[in-house]
Amino acid sequence: MDKLDRYRQLIRQVLEPYTQIKLANGEIEVYKCFDTEGDRYQIFHAGWDGSQRVFGALIHIDLIGDKIWIQYDGTEVGVANELVELGVPHEDIVLAYHSPFMRQYDGFAVG
Hints:
The chain is of the alpha+beta class. It has 2 helices and 5 strands.
């Protein structure tokens, strides 16, 4: 298995459990959107909490080049940490939600 195929598998493995989380408030569904052709992976919520519309991403990850770009991470643990625990090197993960300047200090890839 080549590196990118392995990363695709690991991303799905890390994200899948987040689809099982049920929110306590309202009628809110959890959705997964895995675009395996475009290498974009997202978990998001949509629904209603009373009269308030709820919609937003929990996690958004892209594979760009040979790196995993975490565009958004709304988890407590951090999907980057979960990926590292599964053997992905720090230098192959970009925390894209940090500014390019700040990435040099976060311990992961700059870009």
